[in-house]
Amino acid sequence: MLSKFKNVLVLAPHTDDGELGAGGTINKLIELGANVYYFAFSTVEQSVPDGYPKDILKKEVRKATKKLGIKEENLIIYCYEVRKLNYVRQEILEDLIEYRKKIKPDLVLMPSLHDIHQDHSTIAKEGLRAFKQTTILGYELIWNNLSFDTTSFVKLKKRHIEAKCNALKEYQSQGMRDYMSEDFIKSLAKTRGVQIGCKYAEAFEVVRWVI
Residue 11 pairs with which residues in a beta bridge? Predict the structure, then answer.
C-alpha cells in the first residue's frame, strides 16, 4: 500500500517535527521510491538555546533530512516566527496551495488535528484546507496530543528507526529535550509495533483517505 504513494509532502511546523512524527515512515517511503518534500515553517530563532547561533536549526534540518534521504532541493525552509504561525495563517495557506499545484502530492503527513501546540494546530488546519482532496495522515507527537486516534500504522524495520534516530542526532541544539532521546524514539516505535504484531511501527491518524 505504501508503495503507491509517489509524491509525498511532509508539513513540519518547526524544524524536527517531521522527523519526530514520521521519520521512519519518511525513510521507508524514500526507500520505496517516493519523492518526498519537507516544508519547515519556523526555524525557532527566538527559542534557540544560549550558545548557539540563531540560524542553527536551518543547518541542522538540512543535515537531518539528508540522513532520511530527502533531496536537498525538496527541503523548503520558511522563517515564520515561532508560536505566531496563527498570525500568518493566510500566507501559509497560500504557500501550500501554490506548492499543491507544483508538487501534486498524493500523500500529506502533518501534525494531528488534536495537537494542542498553537503552531502545530495552525499547520494541521491549513494543511487540511489546502489538501482536502488528498490522502492526509496526522503524525504523532505525544507530548502535544491530548488525544490521538491510532487509526493507521506503518510497519518499519530496524534500519528505518535507526535512520530516524540518526537524523534526530543532527539536532544538537535540541538534545536536552527528553523526546529527542534514542531510548524514547525506539520505545515508542516498539510500543506501536506491539499493537500491530511487528517489531517497530509509527502510528498516524487518518485525516483523509482518498482511494
Answer: 39
- Sorted by sequence, the CB contacts under 8 Å of residue 118 that are 6+ apart come out as 83, 85, 86
Which CATH number covers residue 167?
Answer: 3.40.50.10320
Query: For 120, phi and psi rounded to 5 degrees?
Result: -65, -45
Residues near 170 by beta carbon (within 8 Å), at least 6 away in sequence:
60, 63, 64, 67
> Quick check: helix, strand or coil at residue 112?
coil
Instruction: Domain of residue 168: give its range.
Output: 2-208
* pLDDT score recorded for residue 130: 98
What percentage of the chain has pLDDT greater than the value 70? 100
The pLDDT of residue 47 is above 90: no
Q: What is the mean pLDDT of the chain?
A: 96
52, 22 contact by CB (below 8 A): no
Q: Cα–Cα distances in Å, from 100 out to 49, 127, 203? A: 34, 10, 25
- The whole-angstrom separation of Cα 8 and Cα 11 is 10
Q: What is the biggest distance separating any 2 CA atoms in the chain, rounded to whole angstroms?
A: 49
> Using the 8-state DSSP alphabet, how is residue 80 labeled?
P
